[in-house]
Known about the structure:
Elements: H1 12-32, H2 42-49, E1 76-80, H3 87-99, E2 108-110, H4 115-120, E3 124-128, H5 130-137, H6 144-147, E4 152-154, E5 157-162, H7 165-170, H8 175-189
Parallel strand pairs: 1-2, 1-3, 3-5
Antiparallel strand pairs: 4-5
Amino acid sequence: MPDATAEKGQTPRDLFRKLIDSFESYIRDEKERGTELIPATPALVAALANPIPPPPAPRKARHPAPPAPNRPRPDLVFAWGAPAADDASDQLLTKMIEAMGYTRHDVIVTSRVDDPIEKQNPKIIVTLGEAALKQLLGPESAPLAQAQGQWLTYKGIAVMPTAHPSDLLRSPGAKKAAWADLKAVLKKLGRTPPAIAASTRPPGGA
């Protein structure tokens, strides 16, 4: 059999070239002896002519992406039993939030007042209107007329009931009491309203 021992400094291609030359010499010798040989097919020639490709480089370890930072616990969730039926009510809610020194992006406004609120784990829930109060605390809870401005609790979370913005638009005189509720919320959070809203004048006008 042909000998194609590698010599120092030989590349893989040199070694294969040497191997092919050895096989060619071997085939000639065997033909002279009359030995029947398997014909060299194109595939066999190509396999012998091309060196074995180098093994693939080891795959780099994939480092897991760093975990996303935990979202801070929100200060406030504003819960209303149903979304505002008109733009005016929604705009008034925005003014109320901004008068407290927040933006709509800083707080959570939701019309679902059950499990989602518990998962958000806010520091305080502000219920807007009778429907939201009943949905959160149950139909047997005190009506808004009695509960407004009083601190209640839902699963360990402080709750401040106040009027729905649409009710404030229908009864502007109720805005002063609603603003007092929001200032009580800020006090509990250890915050004060911005200077522009620090007076007793409620957001959205009296």
